Amino acid sequence: MAAPSITGSHVMEGGCQCGAVRYRVEVSDNEAYLCHCRMCQKATGGVSIAFKNVDTTGLVWTGEPQWYESSPIAHRPFCAKCGTPLGFGFLGSQYLDLTVGSFDDPAFFVPTSNCGIESKHAAWEDTSHLPGVKVTELDSAIKAWGKAGLKVPD
Q1: What pTM, to 2 d.p., does this model score?
Q2: Which domains does the chain have, with CATH numbers?
Q3: What are the pLDDT digits (tens) for 141-152?
Q4: CA–CA separation, 146 and 141 (whole Å)
């Protein structure tokens, strides 16, 4: 069962993996979407990417992202230090799609639509039937973190 849609103004925060780029943004709901287009696949290295569309008038960056002009019509913010993809936007638009995974609380958002379905990989649509393991229980991760003198992050 899908999570219910939430409306009303919410201030959300997020940023890159290393923390060099952070943002704070006002969102009006918890609706997000998945993009499956080839440009997003290549830009993120994934089979799809989850985005939340935001109005940039309610977006404040702490630590400026770098911008990559990914086509003649669009650009993408990212962290130059760690490489985290942070979004997608059409050039000249007041709206920007922020990557759901870069939010501090990505679980707040629910997928409500798909975009770029011409490049959608059917084999990746539903993986809920596949076996899974927590990273904290993965021997290779436990050994690697242990070798660094650290505990596997939750």
Answers
A1: 0.90
A2: 7-121 (2.170.150.70)
A3: 999 999 999 999
A4: 8
